[in-house]
Amino acid sequence: FKLIADYWPEAFKTQRALADYEPPVYEVKRFAEGMDWSKVADMPMVEFKSGAEQKIASSLKLAWDEKGLHGRFHAPYAPMADKAKALWVNDGLELLFAPGLKKEQVYQFSYDCLGRTFVQKQRLLPIPQAPDASYKGEAFTHAEKIGANEWSGEFLLPWSLFEEAAPKAYDSWNANFVRNKISEPKEVVSSSFTLGKHANTPMFGILRFLGKGD
Predict the structure, then answer these.
(1) Whose CA is closest to 192, among 95, 116, 125?
(2) Phi, psi torsion values for 131, nearest 5 degrees
(3) Which of 33, 68, 152, 208 could pair with 158 as two cysteines, CB 3.0-4.6 Å apart?
(4) How far apart are the C-alpha atoms of 189 and 171, rounded to whole Å?
(5) Residue 184: how many CA atoms within 13 Å on its side-chain side?
(6) Please, what sign has the CA dihedral across residues 22, 70, 144, 151?
(7) What gap in Å lies between CA 150 and CA 184, rounded to an integer?
(8) Whose CA is closest to 191, among 45, 34, 19?
(9) What stretches of 82-146 show up as alpha helix (H) in DSSP?
(10) pLDDT tens digits, residue range 24-56?
(11) Model confidence pLDDT, tens digit, residues 106-129
């Protein structure tokens, strides 16, 4: 009985969170050289399986211009950073996009705190297809900095990486952003409540691209 009963409290929490879930909307401000990133809102993150609030604070901010999507990240802890281990066994970020709101394709850009990169593109409509083996995503750039008790970085995703047209002011895209904390205490959080599957596009949140002056 105890073995069975221990399962249900967390299961109920997850189901309550799922019942209340609405895709979050993050307003992406316009980027400008020398802009004050302290005035840009952090993207809210939740525990990716349960929908609970993140316990370990980190900061992810986005801004955009004609070149692409700019990002800034900071985590107040030393990451798992082992060159002998695979990308997925170190702390890292995963950036997933379904341009527009039709969710026709999903793009994944992942990297660890040591700067190693994985990219992928997959068509979902009219029927799901295998990942596009020809897609390289070489224009994706990022830089990381690891300190004694922190790691931070920045990235740029040029619009040329996407087959779809670049967004215009007040357009919306579906997206999900994931922070993988492999160092103890472990925690995986995402901008969308995806029930444990990062590329769960029906649960993706929304990026709303603001205009100049907003």
Answers:
(1) 95
(2) -55, 145
(3) 68
(4) 26
(5) 0
(6) negative
(7) 14
(8) 45
(9) none
(10) 999 999 999 999 999 999 999 999 888 888 999
(11) 999 999 999 999 999 999 999 999
